[in-house]
């Protein structure tokens, strides 16, 4: 039952917001009593913490699955972008923005988990792109990882509209890729942009 509650809560939090969803809403949606939820979670904050941990695991599992498909480095980044777009398409307000605003302590925990995972993914992608001749070999990888991370997360933290955030993230991805790309990388980037629908 605990896993079912986390799954339903995660879904509702992402679609309707961490702040607006109550324990009553979750209980009603699941056709269980609120008492059943409190049996597993003593308050909403604990449920949010466990839900964000579950979402984090799911997101990084999907990213690992995308990486395993062995796309080229640029296509891989576009596939990851599509996954995020799909995952958060029902949200009006950016989940990260909501967490930062309403549950700053949980937000800090989420971000400390994210920084390590994201930096590993970004670095791996840059090294792959260099090996494929799509990114320049003279890049300072550590700086580019840092630039990309800060651009992505400052956008997520400061833009409340998920739709607006998604548009900006596509621009960030293009900006990041153009800054690193070789002539072959630019050709691949243009191809991906042509096939990407907002």
Automatic annotation (TrEMBL):
<keyword id="KW-0238">DNA-binding</keyword>
<dbReference type="InterPro" id="IPR050624">
    <property type="entry name" value="HTH-type_Tx_Regulator"/>
</dbReference>
<dbReference type="InterPro" id="IPR009057">
    <property type="entry name" value="Homeodomain-like_sf"/>
</dbReference>
<feature type="DNA-binding region" description="H-T-H motif">
    <location>
        <begin position="22"/>
        <end position="41"/>
    </location>
</feature>
<dbReference type="Pfam" id="PF00440">
    <property type="entry name" value="TetR_N"/>
</dbReference>
<dbReference type="InterPro" id="IPR001647">
    <property type="entry name" value="HTH_TetR"/>
</dbReference>
<feature type="domain" description="HTH tetR-type">
    <location>
        <begin position="1"/>
        <end position="59"/>
    </location>
</feature>
<protein>
    <submittedName>
        <fullName>TetR/AcrR family transcriptional regulator</fullName>
    </submittedName>
</protein>
